[in-house]
Write a structure and sequence with these properties.
Layout lengths: L5 E2 L5 E2 L7 H13 L2 H8 L3 H15 L4 E4 L2 E4 L1 H21 L13 E5 L1 H17 L4 E5 L2 H9 L5 E4 L11 E12 L1 H7 L1 H8 L10 E2 L5 H11 L9 E2 L3 H9 L4 E5 H10 L3 E2 L8 E8 L7 H13 L4
Parallel strand pairs: 5-6, 5-7, 9-10
Antiparallel strand pairs: 1-2, 3-4, 7-13, 8-11, 8-12, 8-13
Amino acid sequence: MVHRISDDATGTEQLPAAPLDLNLLRTFLAVHRSGSFTAAARLLGLSQPTVTTQIRALERQLGRELFERQPRGAAPAPFADALAARITDPLDALAAVTGHGGPLDSAPAEPVQLAGPAELLCHCVLPSLAPLIEKGVQLRVATGATEALLDELRAGRHDLVIATSRPRGRAPAPLPLADAELVLVAAPAWADRIGGPARVAADGPAPLHDIPLVGYAPDLPLVRRYWRHVFGRRITCRPAVTVPDLRGVLSAVTAGAGFSVLPRYLCRDALASGALALLHDPEDAPINTGYLVQRPGSADNPHVALVRDSLQRAARAW
């Protein structure tokens, strides 16, 4: 008999009433984390046909397809991602008590090569991964611009890259990671001088022409996106200061060097404390989406999947 998932009154998907076999769930989680049936078999000390048989048994019990077999591994279905999110913590806690079946019980894995923009790595990513480091995961972190990092990923230098724009061309399929709202900010003294958000809302960007502009790069990528999305025009200002690190832009703007456009996650504390002020508060703020890109073939290292899954869970709170 097939036990199908049913919806409760709230529309939330429910697991079957019949108990699920813990061994099948451990095997499922190993496949989900490692990205392939073969890598999961090595991780669990099982044969690949045994892993396949157990996944098929779990799919029959759930009445759902969990993975799509691909030339390079197994792609999880959306339901598989939801199931993994629900069972990861309980199974890991059980493994910690019993000493059986935990994700870090196998032979030491290779360090995970992780790359992305310096400010996001330092502000959000590394704090999120601290629990994995304590459990034995090793990280080798590199920083840089998205296009260069993706080229290096294709060449095999990185396992995971956090991209600040959707990869194009020959890049592996990206996973949307997090949306960063872009905000127009300056020190409170500059905001007071031009009349604050009300003045910009009424007159557009004209009041900002008398304030120095601080940018991430000479071509002002974040500022240009904000101007097109919010004001519907091209920016004509030239930067007074450029700093190739958004943390440096934040520092300069907070010190009163001028105005800029920054991700809200980076300046949330400064805004809350009053060290920075919003210069505009549009109803439809521009969003910069980050993507997580995994190198094909890196699924043989189970720690890559652990880092990937941890980032996807943590990104919801960034």
